Hints:
The chain is an alpha/beta fold. The chain is 34% helix and 22% strand. A 6-stranded parallel β-sheet has the order 2-1-3-4-5-6, with helices on both faces. The protein is globular, with a radius of gyration of 22 Å. S-adenosyl-L-homocysteine is lined by residues 50-51, 164-165, 167, 202-203, 239, 241, 266, 268, 306, 308, 337, 339-340, 342.
Amino acid sequence: MTQLLYIETFGCQMNERDSEIMAQLLGEQAYLQTDQPELADVVVVNTCSIRGKAAHKAYSCFGRYKKLKEKKPDLILAVTGCVAQQDGAALLERMPYIDIVMGPQAIYTLPSLVAAARRDKMPQVVTDLSAEFVIPPFLPSLAEGPAHKRFITIMQGCDNFCTYCVVPYTRGREISRNFADIMGEATHLVSHGVKEITLIGQNVNSYGKKGAHRQSQGFPELLRAVAGIDGLERLRFTTSHPKDLSEELMRCFVEIPSLCPHFHLPVQSGSNSILSRMNRKYTIEAYLDKVARLREYRPDIALTTDIIVGFPGETDDDFAATMQTLETVRYHGSYSFKYSDRPNAKAADFPDKIVEEVKTERLARLQARQEEIALALKQAEIGRIVEVMVEGASKAPANQWSGRTGSNQIVNFSCASQLVPGDLLMVEIEGACQNSLRGKMI
Ligand code: SAH
Ligand code: SF4
Ligand code: F3S
């Protein structure tokens, strides 16, 4: 009998892809996805723990599902992702109505855990994190998710131990996925009509280099191989650590035509003393030098970044150095956050915490300036003709469509003919607003 599955996903692309995998695995057991939790037989909450706020969002939604469960005792409630990994069985002490608690490495066992929870009427907890874990050679069905663009997980975990970050504790050691398995998944997707692939992991540019999961191909070879699949139009990747950005990877932006001219390169801070205490392993000079070289190879590349304000001990001068970095690089976009203490992360024990008001004021100042820069970069596109991949129709008015440039900017444009997501066409840019460009098809 068909059953219904509801998944709520928080956090990064790794979690988004993990949610798709869980939906696909339960899909093979005749589960259909619903967008109404009250109808579901299984509810999965895939959580994120990157900042205190993200974790709180997860905890507050468990409360909502408690009420559902009171009305419908057969409902199976599974908590997955980084909060599940971090809290493990302790979650059950606070919330005994949860049926399954499982970490990111356990997602492939979801169907058997659901069966066990039903059969034994006992909570199931799987939060092992093994450095020997192997990402399965899973060939996804195309039942769930957008058909024209997909994520492929190429690695799990992280070995970098930035002092603010919880990821090495929630996702474990860095594990590269088998090269042939990635190629198998990519080939399968493209043969089913997928036009754009994004290779994802916490630190993709160190792919293949580490320990037991060493691959004979590094990240540039992987990019070349995936780009070589006939029918793939666009290739992207995220996220990269600046210290692992090699000259060979930069050259890929010239040599691989389908590799999109967008690079997400988290800087975190513009101050060397903060970077050092963050354990980022680069100086701001080395970072800026890499940006300059990247732009020599590919002058039209769009750069985006992540920034933390209010790291412990951040002085006015440190923050001014971060503001200066915005001026020097001129990012197309930035995700910026107030520093937040995380369990196990070293910086939680650092002295000189910055008070909330200072963090709030710095973040507002940084975001305001970044918005001006991003808008100016968008305005500079006016008059250009760019290639756009169609994402879908706008809700209103009629004949309005939305798509993305290779540099990953949203373009809304008019076109009288019927288009399909994944179509590529040329658009003349006529206007720019904060979050998107406007144009007409030519
Ligand atoms: N692996 C990726 C980032 C993962 S987390 C990378 O290294 O680039 C995404 C972003 O969240 C980080 O880049 C950082 O800017 C932010 N972040 C991580 N931990 C944080 C914390 N404790 N407080 C505030 N922001 C944090
Ligand atoms: Fe966290 Fe640093 Fe690893 Fe990124 S590189 S996931 S910020 S520890
Ligand atoms: Fe969040 Fe875990 Fe991703 S903490 S950002 S879901 S790796």
